[in-house]
Amino acid sequence: MKKISAKELQDLLQTEKIELIDVREVDEFANGHVAGARNLPLSGLAENYLSLDKTISYHVICQKGGRSARACEFLEGQGYQVTNVEGGVEAYPDELTQ
User: Fold this and answer.
1) Is the residue at 95 inside a domain?
2) Are 98 and 30 in contact (CB under 8 A)?
3) Active site annotation includes 62
4) Could you say which DSSP state residue 95 is in?
5) Would 76 be classed as within a structural domain?
6) In the β-sheet with 19-22, what is the strand arrangement from edge to edge?
7) What is the pLDDT of residues 45-90, one digit of tens each?
8) In this structure, what CATH number is given to the domain that contains residue 72?
9) Does residue 53 belong to any structural domain of this protein?
């Protein structure tokens, strides 16, 4: 599984358009998330992942990196290109959007 740090994600967002999926629950996402992230909770991922495009590479984030790692394992198994953001939003050095 590909991995990057939250700081590397911040740097990447400055120069590229990234498809970022936040797999935290809806209430966690509403309390603050990385700008531009799409909420797709891990708890419903197995039922909702087909809305994702297999031709696009996704970065996956959660609170600390555990749920996003599980989501990445699942999505890789389904044929998606994913990168786990280690440290999650807790380690993200920029302000979160609400």
Assistant:
1) no
2) yes
3) yes
4) P
5) yes
6) 2-5, 81-86, 57-61, 19-22, 38-39
7) 999 999 999 999 999 999 999 999 999 999 999 999 999 999 999 9
8) 3.40.250.10
9) yes
pTM, full prediction: 0.97
Q: In this structure, what token pair is assigned to residue 67?
A: 């749920």
Q: Which candidate in 37, 62, 69, 82 is catalytic?
A: 62
CA 86, CA 25: separation in Å to the nearest integer? 18
Q: Give the Cα separation of 13 and 47 in Å (integer).
A: 28
Q: Is residue 97 part of a domain?
A: no
Q: What is the span of the domain harbouring residue 52?
A: 1-89
Q: Would you list the DSSP string of 64-87?
A: SSHHHHHHHHHHHHTT-EEEEEET
Q: How confident is the model at residue 93 (pLDDT cuts 50, 70, 90)?
A: very high
Number of domains present in the structure of the chain: 1
Q: For the chain, how many residues are written?
A: 98
Q: Cα dihedral angle (32, 87, 75, 13), rounded to 10 degrees?
A: 70
**Mean local confidence (pLDDT), 12-33:** 97
In the block, residue with structure tokens 């994702």: 52
